[in-house]
Amino acid sequence: MTRRSTSRSLRVALAAAGALTLVAGCSSSSSHSGATGAGSATTSASKAGPAPSGLQSFYSQKLEWEKCDEGECAKLRVPIDYAKPSGATIEIAVNRQKATGTKKGSLVVNPGGPGASGVDYAAAADSIVSSGVRESFDVVGFDPRGVQRSAAITCVGDAELDDLLGADPSPDNAAEQKELLAADKSFADACKKNAGPLLGHVSTEEAAKDMDVLRGALGEDKLDYLGKSYGTFLGASYAEQFPKKVGRMVLDGVLPPDLTMAELNAGQAKGFETALDAYLASCTKESDCPLGSEPAAGKKKLQEFLAGLDDKTVRAEGDSRIDRLTEGWAVNGIAAGLYDEASWPGLTDALRGAMNGDGTLLLASGKQYAERNDDGTYNGNIMQVINAVTCLDRPAPTGGVATYEKETKALAKDAPTWGSQLAWAGAICADWPVKATGEAKSVKAAGSGPIVVVGTTRDPATPYEWSERLEKQLENGRLVSYDGDGHTAYGRGSECVDSAIDSYLLEGKNLPEKTTC
């Protein structure tokens, strides 16, 4: 799912469908993430074609696959700075789930984030693609640069991250605004101090270059790719840079590269509001809904509950460090429940408990969203590296507090619940120690083959309009439209969607300009 963390907690999390429950991937013995000298690469005979100038040694390297906890794992060497390919390098962790039948090629997958583990995602291949795709493709995932096993960027300790995620994401007065901005700057300063030179080289554009090196190392002439959520941004960036190398590409739950920071925040606020409305319409039909029997009144009750968490203590149990539900953790917990309509009954139970003074279930949902364990540790570094990637990919808003206040007011009508949570989401990039290297720009991918874009009408994290937006920009785009709830569509129960995507991946079927499911 596209995971989003609010200005503190729902910050720019765009992680893919299923990312909250992924199984573990490679064992630590197969993970080496430190920077090294360029060295020499083992040459491999492949059909991958010529490499860009100066990068031959990277493209020709041979992946040495080893058994790991789930499947096979290898390490891919890439330069930290593509402008200086003879300089320092890092190793990218890669996971392969071999085709169960006759192999047609390699399908590279990415679940989103930015910051979600592609290694873990590929390890769950049986649940993310159909049996037909599993039979025909090696499913390959990688942890993008700066993520988890690939030179992980870590700025603060677990306890400090707890405080950041649990803090108030919707400041109501000058004192709360000052506190939020101070915490954001403290995090940015910690990244400058602790993250090292990679902090300036974790952009989506650079991760897409890594993906082309991976294509070469896999021996594939073209890249077959399935990206969900932020993984669509990564795929679109790849298609723009390497259009002639695009094979069969599926982008599900789209984050368009031409969104400004303000458009990103506003779009997600409206997306989560739409998803909340769908949830409320369902919940209020049930006799035990803690929000009552009328959707509008239920929404107001939820807003009052969240606002009251600034002053009211709602206990929570079962955690080694956190003993109360804060607004930041509550927002994360609610967001997690909106990603999939199958989670709605659990969200109802969590809200019922929290409104009755027991925030244990809602906190647990928020911790799952952040990939945090009850013992206070985090499974990955998504909630840290997500900021590093986002702040590089597009410039931060200018104008300071006045800009965020204006955005809050602008979103009050269309996103009365989520607007205040997300209006401040770009603030952390204002004091970021590395200047943005990217900019909001449209993607044409001129000369590519057909690229399939999938949109879900009530997707909370990547609004349907964003899928339409990207498909219109692409020179050779195809839109699969799914009328449904939850984040992303492929592999989530729609036979119509799955059939269209499978026929494209397995048979190369040229889909019509729009398929409606």
Structure, briefly:
By secondary structure, the chain is α/β, with parallel strands linked by helices.
Structure report:
Helix content is 39%, strand content 14%. The chain has helices at 56-59, 118-123, 125-128, 131-136, 158-166, 174-194, 204-218, 230-241, 261-283, 295-308, 327-338, 344-355, 360-369, 382-393, 401-411, 419-422, 427-430, 464-473, 495-507; strands at 14-15, 66-67, 72-79, 89-97, 105-110, 112-113, 137-142, 223-228, 246-252, 314-315, 324-325, 451-458, 477-485, 514-516. A ten-stranded mixed sheet has the order 2-3-4-7-5-8-9-12-13-14, sandwiched between helices. The chain has a two-stranded antiparallel ribbon with strand order 1-6. A two-stranded antiparallel ribbon has the order 10-11. β2 (66-67) and β3 form a beta hairpin. Residues 1-46 have low confidence and may be disordered. This is Alpha/beta hydrolase. Residues 107-319 form the AB hydrolase-1 domain.
Element layout with pairings:
Elements lengths: L13 E2 L40 H4 L6 E2 L4 E8 L9 E9 L7 E6 L1 E2 L4 H6 L1 H4 L2 H6 E6 L15 H9 L7 H21 L9 H15 L4 E6 L1 H12 L4 E7 L8 H23 L11 H14 L5 E2 L8 E2 L1 H12 L5 H12 L4 H10 L12 H12 L7 H11 L7 H4 L4 H4 L20 E8 L5 H10 L3 E9 L9 H13 L6 E3 L1
Parallel strand pairs: 5-7, 5-8, 8-9, 9-12, 12-13, 13-14
Antiparallel strand pairs: 1-6, 2-3, 3-4, 4-7, 10-11
Helix pairs in contact: 7-8, 9-10, 11-12, 11-13, 12-13
Pfam families: Abhydrolase_1, Abhydrolase_4
GO molecular function, one term: hydrolase activity
Family: Belongs to the peptidase S33 family.
